[in-house]
Amino acid sequence: QVQLVESGGGLVQPGGSLRLSCAGSRIIFRFYTMGWYRQVPGKQREWVAQITKGGSTNYAESVKGRFTISRDDAKNTVYLQMNSLKPEDTAVYYCNANGDGLDLWGQGTQVTVSS
Fold first, then answer.
1. How far is residue 100 CA from its own chain's centroid?
2. Per-residue model confidence (pLDDT) at position 46
3. Which residues contact 63 (CB under 8 A, 6 or more apart)?
4. How far is CA 77 from CA 11, 44, 50, in A?
5. Please, are residues 109 and 11 in contact by the beta-carbon 8 Å criterion?
6. Cα separations (Å) of 81 from 11, 36, 49, 101?
7. Concatenated DSSP letters of 1-66
8. How many CB atoms neighbour CB 33 within 10 A?
9. What pLDDT, in 10s, does the model give residues 22-81?
10. What is the CA radius of gyration of the chain?
């Protein structure tokens, strides 16, 4: 079964850091643009960051300078390093693989930023 599985979420204090991971099964990451999105209950899913097949990165303004997306195609894994976390970063974070007709989502991992 083709799937993405996120991990690394949890509870962290404001100003803290977390690293999210997204591992793929039966999918070859190097063929796809990988992205991270987040969603708060009652709101639309929001794009956070993406990394292309060639390694180019883009970030939402709200996370630029604090979050870093990276990929290890040999491990079929994409990461989101989140620093200087704020309460407004609280959300369920989803991984996405996109390209060549594929639009695949993981199940999400909860990130809560609270003191």
1. 20
2. 97
3. 48, 49, 82, 89
4. 22, 25, 13
5. no
6. 15, 11, 11, 28
7. --EEEEE--EEE-TT--EEEEEEEES--GGGSEEEEEEE-TTS--EEEEEE-TT--EEE-TTTTTT
8. 18
9. 999 888 888 999 999 999 999 999 999 999 999 999 999 999 999 999 999 999 999 999
10. 13
